Amino acid sequence: MEGFGAGKVILLGEHSVVYGHPALAGPLSYGVTARAVPAKRCQLSLPGTLSRPQRALLTRAFQRVATLCGEPGVKVTLESELPLSMGLGSSGALAVASTRVLLKAAGRDGSPQEVARLALEMEQEFHGTPSGVDHTTSALEKLLLYKRTPGQSTGRLKVLKSPRPLKVLVALVGDRSPTKHTVGALRERQARWPERYTRLFKQIGTLAAEGAKAVEDGDLEALGDAMNVNQGLLAALGLSSPQLEDMVYRLRGLGALGAKLTGAGGDGGAVIGLFLEPEPAVKKLLDDGIRCFSSQLAGPRAL
Ligand SMILES: Nc1ncnc2c1ncn2[C@@H]1O[C@H](COP(=O)(O)OP(=O)(O)O)[C@@H](O)[C@H]1O
Ligand SMILES: C[C@@](O)(CCOP(=O)(O)O)CC(=O)O
């Protein structure tokens, strides 16, 4: 038995989404697969390479969703294609994959909405107070405009249709930045200078709403411009780094319509570039030894 949870990229609106503003996010084809085999009791099997605190965290998170699924008698193993804490939603994907396989083991399929509702239990263990955008995008596997309900980790969403293929290049740079730390450090700055930070969050939320309209209108140039402006605001919030900035400028130099960090940011993480055709840029970066790949987030696919 298997369950899959997709990774995600945020095109516009990370961090401000935590404060109740909209974000535009889409699913990756890479993700996490959870596999279950019959066992005496419900358990998560983990590789010996994980540290003791990591094991404890994962076991706790798994147990929360296992309880809700009625503790089916299975042993679950995980296989991830996503780098950890690099902005691609590995924890949300893990939560969705585990939830899907536990539901299946309990004899239920579960709608994407139900999967998202249950997976939140796990995601809360990783993030504390997630906006919900990661695991919701992972469960629905659609391009979404998502807005958190104040004080909660669920929200309202609109599934967006793109008349044009929406293709991004994703490049990985620098060291891991756990989301919990980045969100926590920003929370301290926001608490100290609330008006200044609230102003920036609002502006980012407006960009996300404008970006969603640009997607629906097929105006990729307008979407790319919103991404570039969003990057400037993320840097103003203290979420970028020299390595992330270098990659942003590199992708723009390679023809990206827009480029920005995606996810939590920090010292390192993922940078996305919106391209009409990303493959030549992917090839160039791979030749230079940079970890990267392309992904289509929405829109018509070539036959
Ligand atoms: N395959 C996995 N194996 C073990 N832990 C994982 C796995 N995928 C995700 N995690 C957990 O999720 C955390 C990463 O989540 P986070 O810092 O939110 O970054 P992101 O979601 O951007 O990858 C890891 O520290 C770990 O606790
Ligand atoms: C920074 C944030 O907006 C997105 C984090 O994404 P990731 O965990 O870095 O993939 C946090 C959240 O939405 O809960």
From TrEMBL:
Keywords: ATP-binding, Cytoplasm, Kinase, Lipid biosynthesis, Lipid metabolism, Magnesium, Nucleotide-binding, Transferase. The keyword Nucleus does not apply. GO terms for biological process: isopentenyl diphosphate biosynthetic process, mevalonate pathway. GO terms for cellular component: cytosol. One of its GO terms (molecular function) is mevalonate kinase activity. Residues 57-140 form the GHMP kinase N-terminal domain. It is found in: Cytoplasm. InterPro entries: GHMP_kinase_C_dom, GHMP_kinase_C_sf, GHMP_kinase_N_dom, GHMP_knse_ATP-bd_CS, Mev_gal_kin, Ribosomal_Su5_D2-typ_SF, Ribsml_uS5_D2-typ_fold_subgr. Its main location: cytoplasm. Residues 213-281 form the GHMP kinase C-terminal domain. Pathway: Isoprenoid biosynthesis; isopentenyl diphosphate biosynthesis via mevalonate pathway; isopentenyl diphosphate from (R)-mevalonate: step 1/3. Its EC number is 2.7.1.36. Gene3D superfamilies: 3.30.230.10, GHMP kinase, C-terminal domain. It holds the Pfam family GHMP_kinases_N. Belongs to the GHMP kinase family. Mevalonate kinase subfamily. This is mevalonate kinase.
